[in-house]
Design goal:
Layout (H helix, E strand, L loop, with lengths): L1 H13 L6 H11 L7 E5 L2 H4 L7 H4 L5 H15 L8 E11 L8 E6 L2 H6 L10 H11 L7 E10 L3 E11 L2 E7 L2 H6 L16 H12 L8 E10 L2 E11 L4 E3 L4 E12 L2 E5 L2 E4 L2 H8 L7 H10 L2 E2 L11 H15 L8 E9 L3 E10 L5 E3 L1
Parallel strand pairs: 1-2, 3-4, 6-7, 12-14, 13-14
Antiparallel strand pairs: 2-10, 4-5, 5-6, 7-8, 8-9, 10-11, 14-15, 15-16
Helix pairs in contact: 10-11
């Protein structure tokens, strides 16, 4: 690669046209067809982040968001690849903040048992709750001035065919109450801590193991990146306190969070008019509700193929002669209409990479990228 850079420097002294790089690229392509490319894939290293002096990313080695990465990575590209001209495209792999860890903070704590008077005050006919929303509504009523990181252990009656006395934990985070995992007596017994129903300093190293077991056994459908807060009792210095522990799911198991969590991310950039511009494509996989929305829209497809879509949740594309068939044009029109409904404030040039389900001699998934045009319509790119 040094040969290329040296050659590039000498050529830059020779060419004096307004945009000499196009000729340089052509010459490099001819002389070094197996080495030089205008399409690159790079992964940022520590030294690359450190180029952004004065920015938090220079010390953290991650970007706080995709937006921040889109704004700052061009500076890195300019410094590392000043010789690259218009038309160059670069795919950049980088670290992005996935979860900001602020410590296992509890700013205030309360234990409360809901009374018959409380249920009546909330307008309940019976002295119980029968949905998670009702518990949240009660906490909003009971603690109207809740402060960030407040934790409440609530005892209440819950109806699921029969009425049961339940104890559960709630955490006030980002201005809203959140139901968190409460370690039960059965949980303590499961890890041989049932005598006192608490943990001690002797358990510190094992807490992530214990909590992974509890969460894995009780939380169904967890996805990588999900964060769960665990409420547990801890005995130390002759007294029992109620603590908090943060866990994150990696797709296989739950792990302790002790610092900010990052995740790999990728952005594409292209150099145009001497400026690196990001490709902020939104990636989205259609959900069941999206197919139903399309199926209920009489302006899309035909009545027959919309009915088929509503029944099966995919676009039928096996037999073009079937009345159930969705042509590619019809699908694109349907996806465009869906995007206008979901993202009404999109700007011209915004791209969406959509993945949808289809049936073509079997169930398949298809990915297509649409871009919003100046006429207000979406077109495949």
């Amino acid at each position: 690669m040094k040969k290329i850079f040296y050659l590039l420097s000498s050529l830059m002294l020779v060419f004096t046209a307004c945009d000499p790089m196009e000729d340089v690229y052509e010459e490099l392509d001819k002389q070094y067809p197996d080495v030089y490319t205008k399409d690159m894939n790079i992964e940022l290293a520590k030294k690359d982040y450190e180029l952004l002096k004065g920015k938090p990313v220079a010390k953290n080695y991650y970007f706080a968001s995709e937006k921040e990465a889109a704004e700052l990575i061009p500076t890195i590209l300019d410094k590392n690849y000043p010789q690259m001209g218009n038309g160059t495209s670069v795919t950049v792999a980088f670290n992005k903040l996935a979860f900001e860890f602020k410590g296992n903070k509890i700013s205030s704590f309360a234990m409360y048992t809901v009374t018959d008077e409380d249920y009546s005050a909330m307008g309940h006919r019976f002295s119980n709750f029968d949905s998670s929303n009702e518990m949240i509504e009660f906490l909003e009523y009971k603690y109207p001035d809740a402060v960030e990181n407040m934790k409440v252990i609530l005892t209440f009656d819950y109806y699921t065919g029969t009425t049961n006395r339940v104890r559960d934990a709630f955490y006030f985070l980002n201005g809203a109450w959140r139901n968190i995992y409460f370690v039960t007596n059965d949980d303590y017994a499961l890890v041989d801590r049932g005598r006192y129903d608490n943990f001690t300093s002797a358990d510190d190293d094992m807490l992530p193991v214990f909590f992974n077991k509890f969460l894995s056994d009780n939380i169904i459908g967890a996805e990588a990146g999900d964060v769960e807060y665990v409420s547990y009792a801890y005995f130390s210095g002759g007294k029992t306190t109620h603590k908090l522990f943060t866990m994150i799911y990696d797709g296989t198991k739950w792990n302790a969070v002790t610092e900010n969590v990052t995740t790999p991310a990728v952005l594409a950039f292209a150099k145009k008019d001497g400026v690196w511009k990001p490709d902020l494509t939104v990636r989205y996989t259609l959900a069941a509700a999206d197919y139903q929305w399309i199926a209920s829209n009489p302006a899309l497809g035909t009545e027959t193929n919309r009915t088929n879509l509503a029944n099966y949740g995919n676009f039928y594309q096996s037999n073009p002669n079937s009345s159930n068939y969705w042509s590619n044009e019809q699908i694109v029109a349907a996806l465009g209409a869906l995007l206008k409904n979901k993202y009404p404030n999109s700007e011209v040039g915004q791209k969406y990479q959509l993945t949808y389900a289809a049936y073509n001699s079997g169930n398949i998934t298809v990915t297509v990228t649409l871009e919003l045009q100046s006429n207000g319509s979406y077109a495949v790119i």
